[in-house]
Amino acid sequence: MNARPAFPHRPTRRLWLQQALGLAIVPAWAQANAPVGDAQLSRWIQAAERVLRGRSSAAVMKMQIQRSDYQREYDLLVLSDDRDEQSKVLIRMLGPALWRGNATLKVGERISIYDPRTRRVTVMGSSMLADQWMGSHFTNDDLMRETDLARHYSYELQQRVAERDELDRPVERLSLQLRPKPNAPVAWGRVQYQLHLRDGDAVLPLQVDYFRRAGDAQAQRSLRYSRLAPIDGRPLPLRLTMQALDKPGEYTQIDYARLKFDNDFGADDFSERALR
Q1: Please, what is the Cα angle at 137 between 160 and 140, to 5 degrees?
Q2: What is the pTM (predicted TM-score) of this model?
Q3: Cα angle at 241 between 76 and 209, to 5 degrees?
Q4: Terminus of the chain with fewer CB atoms < 10 Å: N or C?
Q5: Strand (E) or helix (H) holding 167
Q6: pLDDT for 146-169, tens place per residue?
Q7: Where are the domains of the chain?
Q8: CATH class of 37-275
Q9: Considering Cα of 182, then 184, then 190, then 194, what sign does the dihedral take?
């Protein structure tokens, strides 16, 4: 009687098939902790930085400033267009009446400011990028996006842990350390960037801590993203809170009231005429 040819039992059979097909055998825990290259880190940072801008966007938002000596509120219209090499941003103040009509325009590397009281346009020098915008805790650079974190900094993944976001969805929290590249035109000696990663590629920013010098143990300020709400079918953080960590109790909060992506802007929407 001929013996039946032996065939691997189920677990061994799976192993045999993988080897026969040349498939890599990598446990799930090893995949989750596998090294991440600079190119992937750069894509995640870029995605997190653009999550509220897209390729083009129009937003209406409220800015609330809390300082020890004053409190202010602004209503803002913000247009952005990153569809070509010259990034463009226009911020127009809608209210209150005292500030209505003030505007800031960025086209490429040129930043202009319009004051309706004098009807004059002033070109901002690079030394003003680190200045606070209209008395807030956000700088001109923060709002104009002159600094490109993915381009001007090198990055290192320091931690990757599983947790749940504010909507109780399973996510991974990634903590990245960013250090400026040699001769990069940046204001911060070190940046600690935390983001949430969902389903392997859906990225949302969570928190950004800014250190004046690379060796500082304490961050000077911290930006927190929160209040997830659906925009175009995807939850996005519609509240940004910038805290001054060296001045307890001081912060500036931005709340998005409306946000629309993929706007078909024309050339005149970001011209000097649009400032006035």
Answers
A1: 95
A2: 0.85
A3: 130
A4: N
A5: none
A6: 788 989 999 999 999 999 999 999
A7: 37-275
A8: mainly beta
A9: negative
